[in-house]
Predict the structure.
Amino acid sequence: MIQEYLHKAMAAAHYELLEDEEGFYGEISGAPGVWATGSTLETCRKELLDVLEEWVIVGIAMGHELPEFDGVTIKVKSVA
């Protein structure tokens, strides 16, 4: 389930070629703070996936509600 969630989130990623610098910028709309840069598009994608994985782990650990991506979500139970 987590792999599918990561795959759907990465499919929603948006990438831009940086004009003033060499490299790429990527972000995932709906996932605040999930962004990355890289000298190549592939490097940027790999870094973005790393950031997304960490964001999901922290979100689960903290009991945050995670956004849905293309019909896939991760339900987090609050620990009381």
